[in-house]
Each structure stands twice: as structure tokens, then as C-alpha cells.
Design brief:
Strand content: 15-25%
Distance between the termini: 17 Å
Largest sheet: 7 strands, mixed
Subunit structure: Homodimer. Heterotetramer of two MnmE and two MnmG subunits.
Organism: Aedoeadaptatus acetigenes
Bound molecules: guanosine-5'-diphosphate, zinc ion
Function: Exhibits a very high intrinsic GTPase hydrolysis rate. Involved in the addition of a carboxymethylaminomethyl (cmnm) group at the wobble position (U34) of certain tRNAs, forming tRNA-cmnm(5)s(2)U34.
Number of helices: 16
Radius of gyration: 29 Å
Protein name: tRNA modification GTPase MnmE
Order of helices and strands: EEHEEEEHEHHHHHHEHEEHEHEHEHHHH
Helix content: 40-55%
CATH class of the largest domain: Alpha Beta
Strand order of the largest sheet: 3-4-5-6-2-1-7
Family: Belongs to the TRAFAC class TrmE-Era-EngA-EngB-Septin-like GTPase superfamily. TrmE GTPase family.
């Protein structure tokens, strides 16, 4: 089978690329490519050739074309890439030439899936490709680049090799236990397993931070109407994205903006002011504000320091006091009746006095966020996991290996331990894809775009 797809974004662009992969890729392309040099001449392998795509005697576009012969291509199969003008219509016409000549339209992620099946990359590297494409901050992009270049793969493979070795010892002992074979050194086995376990747990614990780096910190700004929520967002973004007015209830829906703090991005949601209201539309906004608050990694709660707390403020405090909150006592320029120490009772170490009119307190907010989320900044070469799939499998592997250690230690019998060690081995293999079934692969590659 030969598959074909447009691999570039569909909007008008300088260039666009149509890709083909499979046994017939080169012959199909030759059917439409006309140039001084021929694509099917092996001497032109991996050379950009100038020419035209011609269909039924009509020039479709002026292009550059390149052939890659198996196994030296992205997918490991024969491939052709056609660089054409980035016109959606033009690219679709070129694609249709190949489809009408017998190529199959590629499914999501199919090129990468073939590459995976041909051993060009492991599953973590394949997943890193889609993460890199979707990265929204420099640190997220860097993180996926590390995974893309096999850092996580090698780490997991390292665990697998050592676990396999352990398994071999266990199996040997079980198979020959009745005969005159040297018994397994149980304490050495435990030491080895515990060492691997400690490293696996350390890797697992990088998930929280890794995920924050990849996805950004979901931040919700909450507070009564008119306390300065939209002003805060605008100050952080240094632009007028949120509408600031002095009519309470202006921000009726959730407004999302992205803001980068030392490479990590904050996905900030400016929510509707929370208050009792008869207005149905405003009520919907308030419900969304509540939902945004529930899902947030970080809440910025604002209070008008120039007025005493009201019932609505107390309700907000009640709802958020167990979450990660930075409390801002705003409008300090109007004089403060709210006591910072009293608020510290609800939000220890996280109360900041601000005045957006005077630009006061914003740096302190940034500092606090940095100290919470960027503290203990990881080494450039430390390997982090950020995918929930990896984290769950790693946790299962840790659990199985822990059980194995328990069993070996308690002397219950090594055959049960063997089952657990084997399970840990398989779970790790599911991360890298060695032992992943079709279902797992379909799930991973369905998140890709067409043409990748
Ligand atoms: P929101 O409803 O909570 O989003 O509040 P806004 O950001 O729309 O601000 C409401 C009003 O308060 C606007 O007129 C702002 O200019 C004003 N405001 C915001 N921050 C301050 C501040 O620190 N001091 C004073 N005096 N006014 C502020
Ligand atoms: Zn607002």
C-alpha cells in the first residue's frame, strides 16, 4: 500500500508539502512529475529536483520533488515529498492526482506509525513529535525535543534491561530449584530491585512538573465584580486583552490568555465576577468561573482592600481556601481596610498588597509564582515525563516491582515474584511500544494530524 497526504498546514503559505510513502511512492510520483531529471533514477535519491506536476497534459504546479529510497526515509519505506506552492487548492489537486492513481489517503499519524512499526523510532519518540508540534512555550518545546531524541527511551530501556536480568535470575532459580544449582542470592536480588525501583520512582515524580512545563499552569483569576480581575490580566499580559470597565459584571464569560513566565506558560482565565445575580447570562458566566476555579493549578483571588469583606468574598474564600491560591488585596491606593495578617490566616504566605493603578505588587506576584512552580529548576539534561500515559504505566510498573520485592523478602516464593517482575517489564515496554498492542498504538496515533 502507498499512502499520500498534504503534510503542511492548510492555510495559504509560501510552500506546502505533499508526501507519499509505500512501495509505489516513487512510481506514482513519476507518473505526474516532469523535470529534466527523473525521480526514479537512484542517482537522484534524496536530491531536490525541479519540475512540474502535470496531470492530463495540464501543469498543476511548479514544484521541487525529492525521493527517499527505503530504508533511508522517515517511514523506512520508499517516500516522495513534493514541495509545491502553499495553496490549499493546488495542494489538494496534487494529492488528488496520486489518490486517483491508486494511493490511499493517509490516516492521522500514519507516516509516523509506519516509521514506528519499521523501528525508526520508539513510541515515546513518536509521541514527542506531536507534542513538539503542539508545544506552546519554549520549555515545552525543549522538553519534547529531549524526548524526541530518545532520552526517555534510553532511560526506560535501561530499566528494562536490568529488570530482564533480574527476571533471568528468578527464572533460573525456579526452573532448577529441585536440582543441584547454586541458589539465587536473595539479598542481592532485593538490592538490585530496590535500586531500580528508586530510579523509577524518581522518574515518576518528575511528572507533576513535566506536565506543567508541557501544558502550562492553568490559572484562574477570581473575585467579586469590579475588584480588578481584568486589570490584573491586562497588567500581566501588558496589553489590553480583557475589557476593563467600572460597570460590575463586564467580564461575563471566561477569557483565556497565555502568558510566559521564564519559559513556562500560564494559561490565565479571567472569569466573570462571582456574585449573586438574576441575570441568566451572567449566571452562566459565574458557573463557568466556578468550573475554571475547580480545574485550575493556580488561583489568583482578588479582593478590594478599600472595602470590608462581604458575604460574597467569604463564599469565594470558603471555596478556594484548600487550593493553591495567591490572594491579592487590591486598590491599596484607595486606602486599606483589609488586614493582610487576617487574610494570611486563609492563605498563609500568599497574600500580596497590590494597586494596579500605581503598578504596585505585580513583581511580587510573579516572584511568588516562580518560587512555587519554578523552584528546584531541573537540570537541562534531567529526563522528565509529562505524558499521563507514561506516568500511569510507570506507576503500574513501580507497583508490580514493589510487590515482587515484598514477596522475595517475605520468602513467599520466587515464582510469584517472577510474575510481578515480568509485569513490570511489560508495563515499561508499553511505554516505549515494544509490548504495546494495536489499541495503544491507535490511541497514540489518533492524536496526530494527517500528514505526520
Ligand atoms: P473586574 O470586574 O474584577 O475585572 O475589575 P476591572 O479590572 O474591570 O476593574 C474595575 C475598576 O476598578 C476599573 O475602573 C479599574 O480601573 C479599577 N481598578 C482596578 N485596579 C485598581 C486599583 O488598584 N486601584 C484603583 N483605584 N482602581 C482600580
Ligand atoms: Zn473583568
Amino acid at each position: 500500500m502507498t499512502i499520500a497526504a498534504i503534510s503542511t498546514a492548510k492555510s495559504p503559505a509560501g510552500i506546502g508539502i505533499v508526501r507519499l510513502s509505500g512501495e509505489e511512492a516513487i512510481s506514482l510520483a513519476c507518473g505526474f512529475f516532469q523535470g529534466k531529471q527523473s525521480l526514479d533514477d537512484p542517482a537522484n535519491d534524496r536530491k531536490l529536483l525541479y519540475g512540474h506536476i502535470v496531470s492530463e497534459g495540464e501543469v498543476v504546479d511548479e514544484v521541487l520533488a525529492v525521493a527517499f529510497r527505503a530504508p533511508f526515509s522517515y517511514t523506512g519505506e520508499d517516500m516522495v515529498e513534493i514541495q509545491a506552492h502553499g495553496s490549499r487548492i493546488g495542494l489538494e489537486r496534487i494529492l488528488n492526482c496520486f489518490i486517483s492513481a491508486g494511493a490511499e489517503p493517509a490516516k492521522r499519524g500514519e507516516f509516523t506509525k509506519i516509521a514506528f512499526l519499521n523501528g525508526k523510532l520508539d513510541l515515546t519518540e513518536a509521541e514527542a513529535i506531536i507534542d513538539m508540534i503542539e508545544a506552546e512555550s519554549v520549555s515545552a518545546q525543549k522538553q519534547s525535543a529531549r524526548q524526541l531524541t530518545g532520552h526517555l527511551y534510553r532511560k526506560i530501556e535501561g530499566f528494562r534491561t536490568r529488570i530482564k536480568d533480574t527476571l533471568a535470575h528468578l527464572v533460573a532459580d525456579i526452573d532448577f530449584s529441585t536440582e543441584e544449582v547454586e541458589p539465587v542470592d536473595v539479598s542481592a536480588l532485593i538490592t538490585t530491585c530496590e535500586a531500580i525501583l528508586a530510579e523509577m520512582k524518581a522518574l515518576e515524580s518528575t511528572f507533576t512538573r513535566g506536565k506543567l512545563v508541557q501544558e502550562g499552569i492553568a490559572t484562574a483569576i477570581v473575585g467579586k465584580p469590579n475588584v480588578g480581575k481584568s486589570s490584573f490580566l491586562n497588567k500581566m499580559l501588558r496589553e489590553d486583552k480583557a475589557i476593563v470597565t467600572d460597570i460590575p459584571g463586564t467580564t461575563r464569560d471566561v477569557l483565556e490568555a497565555s502568558y510566559s513566565l521564564d519559559g513556562i506558560h500560564l494559561r490565565i482565565q479571567d472569569t466573570a465576577g462571582i456574585r449573586k445575580t438574576e441575570d441568566t447570562i451572567e449566571q452562566i458566566g459565574i458557573e463557568r468561573a466556578m468550573a475554571s476555579m475547580e480545574e485550575a493549578d493556580l488561583i489568583i483571588a482578588l479582593f478590594d482592600a478599600s472595602r470590608p469583606l462581604e458575604e460574597e468574598d467569604m463564599e469565594i474564600i470558603e471555596r478556594i481556601k484548600d487550593k493553591r491560591v495567591i490572594c491579592l488585596l487590591n486598590k491599596q491606593d484607595l486606602g486599606s481596610v483589609l488586614n493582610k495578617e487576617a487574610m494570611e490566616a486563609y492563605f498563609p504566605g500568599a497574600v500580596i498588597e497590590t494597586s494596579f493603578i500605581r503598578d504596585e505588587g505585580l513583581a511580587a506576584v510573579e516572584d511568588l509564582i516562580e518560587s512555587w512552580f519554578l523552584s528546584g529548576t531541573i537540570e537541562e539534561d534531567e529526563i522528565q515525563i509529562y505524558s499521563l500515559r507514561h506516568k500511569l504505566l510507570l506507576a503500574e510498573a513501580v507497583e508490580s516491582l514493589s510487590k515482587a520485592v515484598e514477596d522475595i523478602r517475605s520468602g513467599i516464593g520466587l515464582d510469584l515474584a517472577e510474575v510481578y517482575v515480568e509485569d513490570a517489564f511489560l508495563k515499561l515496554g508499553e511505554i516505549t511500544g515494544q509490548t504495546a498492542g494495536e489499541e495503544v498504538l491507535d490511541h497514540v496515533f489518533s492524536k496526530f494530524c494527517i500528514g505526520k
